[in-house]
Amino acid sequence: MTTKERLLDLVDQLDEAEVDELLDYAGWLAQEIDTLTSKELARVQAGEAEIARGACTTLQDLRGRLGL
């Protein structure tokens, strides 16, 4: 049995709501992968450098500062 055949067997076991969710997910998987612009890549790299330097705040610390 091929992978596609196994998938079809599984789909047959799902109800309509589950099939709708699976279809949404499959559509997301099939989308073209976006590439970052050079400006976006530079921002990601700057953020990673800040994290490496320890210049970041954990969610737990932020919640503490905000009293949440």
Number of domains: 2
Shape estimate: elongated
Give the class from helix and strand content and strand pairing.
Answer: mainly alpha
Binned strand content = under 5%
Q: State the end-to-end CA separation.
A: 53 Å
Mean pLDDT: 93
User: In terms of per-residue confidence, which ranges show pLDDT below 50 for 5 or more consecutive residues?
Assistant: none
Q: How much helical structure, as a percent, in the residues?
A: over 70%
Order of helices and strands: HHHH
Number of helices: 4
Characterize the biggest β-sheet: none
Which value, in Å, is the CA radius of gyration? Answer: 21 Å
Number of strands: 0
Molecular structure report:
It is a single chain. This protein is mainly α. The protein is 72% helix and 0% strand. The protein contains four helices and no strands. It has helices at residues 3-12, 16-30, 38-53, 59-66. The longest helix is centred in the last third of the chain and has 16 residues, at 38-53. The mean pLDDT is 93.
